[in-house]
Write a structure and sequence with these properties.
Length: 185
């Protein structure tokens, strides 16, 4: 469907992963259109649909379609040509940063059948470190995990009920689809 670019440099958080430098486009997008091609006025590939969210600039309830620009796709395509993995690391948690925490990333939810659930993470846990990296914002953890190779074990330092301890978490392959809070096989 036709659309209008509302803004460039937009950000979106999907499944605990922050995506930056996106284009927010006003257009009709149907469920299941993630990764659909977006073409420019000359029919050239401009990017792919990453996700949909309600936009802050439009009328109430008007969704923005977030598009991953082709410039960000090219490095991924080059990795695929070299035979490297296309899968991103994934833990399966929803995070929040609350000002009263002053440090870490609070786990809001743990998805069923996820690496985080298998490791024993729980809602309410505050993640302070991942490997040697201090987690002072949820985006730090999200970016680190996305860049971690699936099947690699990371050390996650957790604060739970006043106790600090470490959990080994085997990073999984980010599922291509999350349905009803669980990864689609």
């Amino acid at each position: 469907s036709p659309g209008i670019v509302k803004r460039r440099g937009a950000s979106l958080q999907l499944q605990g992963v922050s995506w930056d430098e996106l284009s927010a486009v006003s257009m009709n997008v149907w469920p299941g259109c993630a990764a659909a091609p977006v073409l420019d006025m000359k029919g050239r590939l401009a990017g792919i649909v990453l996700g949909v969210a309600t936009g802050p600039d439009g009328p109430a309830g008007e969704p923005d379609c977030y598009v991953l620009p082709v410039a960000q796709l090219l490095p991924i395509i080059e990795r695929l040509k070299r035979g490297e993995s296309r899968r991103l690391g994934w833990m399966g948690i929803w995070l929040s940063a609350r000002p009263e925490d002053r440090q870490g990333a609070r786990v809001l939810a743990v998805l069923e059948s996820s690496p985080a659930q298998a490791a024993g993470l729980r809602p309410g846990d505050v993640i302070l470190r991942v490997d040697e990296r201090v987690v002072d914002d949820p985006a730090v953890l999200a970016r680190y995990i996305v860049q971690t190779s699936p099947d690699r074990t990371v050390a996650v330092t957790v604060l739970r009920d006043g106790e600090v301890f470490e959990l080994p978490v085997e990073v999984g392959s980010r599922p291509l689809l999350i349905c009803c809070g669980a990864p689609w096989p």
